[in-house]
Write a structure and sequence with these properties.
Blueprint lengths: L2 H26 L2 E9 L4 E7 L2 E9 L6 E3 L4 E9 L3 E3 L4 E9 L11 E8 L4 E6 L4 E6 L4 E3 L1 E9 L4 E3 L1 E9 L19 H14 L6
Parallel strand pairs: 1-5
Antiparallel strand pairs: 2-3, 3-14, 4-13, 5-12, 6-11, 7-10, 7-14, 8-9, 8-12
Length: about 210
């Protein structure tokens, strides 16, 4: 075997090894298909003042899944059915809605978590959803009714380490007038985790002229 042939074999072996690494990393990603339910009678609401602004919040714990681990590159396909009425946001100037994946056992959400996806309410058109620093899918509307009995969501997640999911909720935060100071994500008791990430997402959309609306 000549030196040239040996070099070619070494190159081919290295390429195969690299391909195996990529294949292994890709094999780790999973798609979680979830069919969840929640009763509108179990929605909890709250309100609080921050500065001169009154915020109103609502949240509903969803059932119908087995706790699972969400890892980097994972996708979710979620169908939510609301019984005993509709999940309804109060109409305000600023309205955030989220589908939230979390660990209520005390696990710390990976700092670099982000998401990107779509919502469809009651079979309507798809709207964009995502979060720059959390494991929620968040969308935004202004002065529009958002009330639904069924929700279909798809999303992809990026995170620095796996995250155990044992709680899934739908939630909202609304306020009127405009926010003059954005509270820290930890301020939310019943609200969407990572509001700061939602705000950054909305500001980017406003600059691009691509406002999400349901």
């Amino acid at each position: 075997m000549t030196g040239f042939e040996f070099s070619r074999l070494k190159g081919a072996a290295a390429a195969l090894a690299l391909g195996a690494v990529f294949a292994a990393s890709g094999a780790q990603a999973a798609t979680h298909v979830l069919n969840l339910t929640g009763s509108a009678t179990n929605v909890t609401t709250n309100s609080f003042m921050f500065g001169d602004t009154l915020y109103e919040t609502g949240a509903l714990e969803l059932t119908g899944f087995t706790p699972f681990q969400l890892a980097d590159g994972d996708d979710v396909k979620v169908t939510v059915t609301i019984t005993d009425g509709a999940f309804t946001l109060p109409v305000r100037q600023f309205m955030y809605f989220g589908l939230n994946f979390s660990d209520i056992s005390g696990g710390v959400q990976p700092i670099t978590s982000s998401s990107n996806g779509l919502f469809s309410f009651d079979g309507g058109p798809q709207v964009g959803a995502g979060c720059g620093n959390c494991t929620s899918l968040i969308t935004y509307v202004e002065n529009q009714q958002l009330s639904f009995t069924s929700l279909f969501a798809t999303g992809s997640f990026s995170m620095s380490e796996p995250y155990q999911i044992n709680s899934i909720t739908v939630s909202y935060q609304v306020n009127d007038p405009a926010v003059t100071a954005v509270p820290e994500p930890g301020t939310w008791a019943l609200m969407i985790a990572g509001f700061g990430g939602a705000g950054m997402m909305i500001r980017r959309r406003r600059r691009s002229g691509d406002m999400v609306a349901a």
